[in-house]
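Hi all, posting the design record for the shared folder.

TITLE: backbone redesign
STEP: 1 of 1
STRUCTURE INPUT:
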C-alpha cells in the first residue's frame, strides 16, 4: 500500500440561494447583509498506490488555492510519496515533526489521511467504520446550518426546514446581543419543542455580552451556544459555565493543542464542535473521539461546506465512535450538485451511512473536471 502518486484538484459547486429555499449568501456576524458564502469550494486529494488502488480525500479551501497548491507540491507531496497508506500513526507523526510552515498544511494532511483510509478500506474490501471497530449506528441526524438572516427570512426558513424533516438548526450570531436573543426567541416560538437550536457566536462576545445572552437565553432551552468567547479563555468560560444553565460548546479552541483537554479539566464546557480539517484527518478525529468518550463529552462535527468525500468520511467516524452522539452540522442539502455520481442520501433529516469499501463512495472524475477552478 505504498503511495506512488498524490494529486490535488480544486472544485466549486453553487449553493442554493435563500430565496429559493437555500442558505446563500451564508453570512456570519462579520459580514454586511448581502455578502457571504455562495458556493461550496473544496480541495480534493487523490492518492494512488503501487497496486493501482486509488483513495480520495477532501479538505476545505480556506486559503488561496495557489498557496495550497504550492504547499502541496513543495511540502506535502514529497513527504508522502513512498509512505505506506496503512501506517497512519507513522505518517501523522512524521508530518507533525517535519512540516513548516504550519499555516494551511494540516488541512492538506487531513485530505491525505482521508485518502489513505479510503485506499486501505478498498484494498481490504471493508468500510472505514469496520477498520475503526465496527458500526454502532446506521444513520446520522443533521443540524441544518443557516446563516445570519433578518427576522422575516429566519421565520420563513425555520418553518421550511422543519417541514423538510430536520429537527436541529445551527445558526450564527454575535452581531448584537439583543438581536441574537430576539432571533433565538423567534426560532423557539416557531419550532416549539420540535426543534433543537444551536447558536454559534464565532468568538464575537466579550464576557459581559456572553453572560447577558446566556442568562436571558435560559428559558429558550438552547442545545448549546458555540464559542461565545475568543480562544484560551479557560477561567472566563468556566465561570460562565458555573453561573448559567445554557450549555456551552467550543469549536475554534479545539484546534489549539491541549485546549480541549484543558477545558474538560476546568469543567468549562458541555460539548465540543470539532473538524477533521484542522485536526489532521480521520486519524486525529478518532483520537479526539476517544478523549470525548472517556470524558463523557458529546462531540459534534463542524461544517465547512463539505462535499461528498469529506461528508462520507465524517459519517464513517460517526458510525463507529460513541462520542459523536449529537447531529452533525451540514450545508450539504443546499449544495446544487456534488462530485459524486449521486448525492449522499438524506431522509427525514438524517444521512444514511455509506456501506461500501473505504469511505463508501465513488468519485465522478468527469464532475471533478466540470466543477474545477483554477
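Okay, here is what came back for every position:
SEQUENCE:
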Amino acid at each position: 500500500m505504498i503511495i506512488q502518486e498524490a494529486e490535488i484538484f480544486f472544485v466549486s459547486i453553487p449553493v442554493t440561494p435563500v430565496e429559493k429555499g437555500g442558505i446563500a449568501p451564508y453570512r456570519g456576524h462579520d459580514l454586511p447583509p448581502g455578502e457571504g458564502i455562495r458556493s461550496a469550494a473544496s480541495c480534493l486529494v487523490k492518492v494512488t498506490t503501487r497496486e493501482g488502488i486509488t483513495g480520495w480525500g477532501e479538505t476545505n479551501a480556506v486559503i488561496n488555492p495557489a498557496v495550497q497548491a504550492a504547499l502541496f507540491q513543495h511540502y506535502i507531496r514529497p513527504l508522502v510519496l513512498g509512505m505506506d497508506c496503512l501506517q497512519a500513526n507513522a505518517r501523522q507523526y512524521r508530518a507533525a515533526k517535519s512540516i513548516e510552515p504550519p499555516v494551511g498544511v494540516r488541512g492538506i494532511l487531513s485530505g491525505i489521511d482521508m485518502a489513505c483510509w479510503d485506499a486501505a478500506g478498498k484494498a481490504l474490501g471493508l468500510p472505514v467504520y469496520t477498520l475503526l471497530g465496527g458500526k454502532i449506528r446506521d444513520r446520522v441526524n443533521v443540524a441544518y446550518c443557516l446563516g445570519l438572516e433578518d427576522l422575516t427570512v429566519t421565520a420563513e426558513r425555520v418553518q421550511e426546514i422543519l417541514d423538510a424533516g430536520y429537527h436541529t438548526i445551527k445558526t450564527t450570531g454575535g452581531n448584537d446581543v439583543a438581536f441574537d436573543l430576539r432571533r433565538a426567541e423567534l426560532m423557539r416560538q416557531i419550532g416549539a419543542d420540535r426543534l433543537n437550536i444551536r447558536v454559534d457566536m464565532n468568538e464575537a462576545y466579550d464576557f459581559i455580552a456572553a453572560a447577558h445572552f446566556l442568562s436571558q437565553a435560559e428559558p429558550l432551552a438552547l442545545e448549546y451556544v458555540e464559542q461565545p468567547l475568543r480562544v484560551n479563555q479557560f477561567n472566563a468560560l468556566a465561570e460562565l459555565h458555573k453561573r448559567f444553565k445554557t450549555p456551552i460548546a467550543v469549536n475554534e479552541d479545539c484546534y489549539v493543542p491541549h485546549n480541549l483537554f484543558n477545558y474538560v479539566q476546568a469543567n468549562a464546557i458541555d460539548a465540543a464542535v470539532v473538524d477533521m480539517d484542522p485536526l489532521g484527518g480521520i486519524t486525529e478525529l478518532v483520537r479526539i473521539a476517544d478523549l470525548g468518550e472517556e470524558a463523557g463529552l458529546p462531540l459534534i462535527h463542524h461544517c465547512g461546506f463539505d462535499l461528498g468525500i469529506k461528508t462520507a468520511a465524517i459519517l464513517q467516524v460517526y458510525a463507529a465512535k460513541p462520542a459523536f452522539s449529537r447531529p452533525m452540522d451540514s450545508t450539504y442539502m443546499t449544495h446544487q450538485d456534488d462530485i459524486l455520481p449521486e448525492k449522499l442520501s438524506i431522509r427525514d433529516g438524517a444521512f444514511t451511512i455509506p456501506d461500501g469499501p473505504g469511505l463508501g463512495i465513488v468519485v465522478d472524475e468527469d464532475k471533478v473536471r466540470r466543477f474545477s477552478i483554477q
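COMMENT: The first strand starts at residue 3 and ends at 14.
Let me know if anyone wants the other runs.
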